[in-house]
Amino acid sequence: MTVRVGILGATGAVGQRFIQLLDDHPTFELAALTASEASAGKSYREAAKWRVNTPIPEEVAEMTVGATTPEDVPDDVDLLFSSLPSGVAAEVEPAFLEAGYVVSSNSSNDRMAPDVPLTIPEINPGHLDLIEVQREQRGWDGALVKNPNCSTITMVPTLAALDEFGLEAVQVSTLQAVSGAGYSGVTSMEIIDNAIPHIGGEEEKMETESRKLLGEFDGAEIELHGMDVAASCNRIPTLDGHLENVFAETAEDVTPEEAAAAMREYPGVDLPSSPDQLIHVFEDFGRPQPRLDRERGDGMQISAGGIQTTENGLKYNCLAHNTIRGAAGASLLNGELLVEEGWV
After folding, report:
1. Residue 23's CB: how many other CB atoms inside 10 A?
2. Catalytically active residues, by annotation
3. Which of 22, 266, 295, 323 is most buried (most C-beta within 10 Å)?
4. pLDDT of 112-145, one tens digit each?
5. Per-residue exposure over 150-180, b if at least 16 CB sit within 10 Å of its own CB, e if not
């Protein structure tokens, strides 16, 4: 089965990751690229300043970029991946949904909307059933699915593994790579020899999205997980890979060995882009590290390490590649789940 797909916002940093990940994909055939009006009508090679560490696929380089409107996307495209800035996505994604397209979006708008699935396939695939509620309430034939923020998706798989011990509260401090801000998001004069102790909006995303992801869907709505979450988000001068220091309070006493086993044994999914093992746990307290471990599982695996007990639970570190697992790869995996579950 071949599924024809398109990318909304194809020339940006995440759009380029989509193109890299879709090259030679076993199910998806890239059939449409969109960008701003300034790029529309140009070849992709002309429109995009390519920054990914692999060459542009030759067939993609010669594709013509369209405007980001339903009229510029062929009718036979089955699935769209959105990497638009959230302000733009909030304006244009509804037009594609009303036109009947299924959209797997990395954009942050509507992630916490009550009728929009916020999904990590290994964690909460059943939340896709919220699409039926969405279609009924909004009256469109399409479907909108979101993946979480890049810092949220780094932490939540480890929390899902620990939830069997009764998660009550989580505190997290992040050390986030500059690529998470986009190519022009942080200047070299700001970040070299420095760390920036605040990322606008990031803390709120981690605090709310994690509770939705671990919440329960009752057929009509999602009841948020009852844990308290507090986040402090920091930008550091690494290129890729978000490292996070997590403190988890649990109702039950849990040893580091039990926590490590729960993470290692947490089940994955059988999708083309999923890693063989969702969470790799290091015994070495000096790991994970961004430069050494962000590419594990082709950038789709979560790494954890340094697990220790505290007075109220556990502390540990976790890491994921922020533009692969935390952005384009997350949307791609959601797209594969949509196909697997028959929504596409």
Report:
1. 14
2. 150, 242
3. 323
4. 999 999 999 999 999 999 999 999 999 999 999 9
5. bbbbbbbbbbbbbbebebeebebebbbbbbb
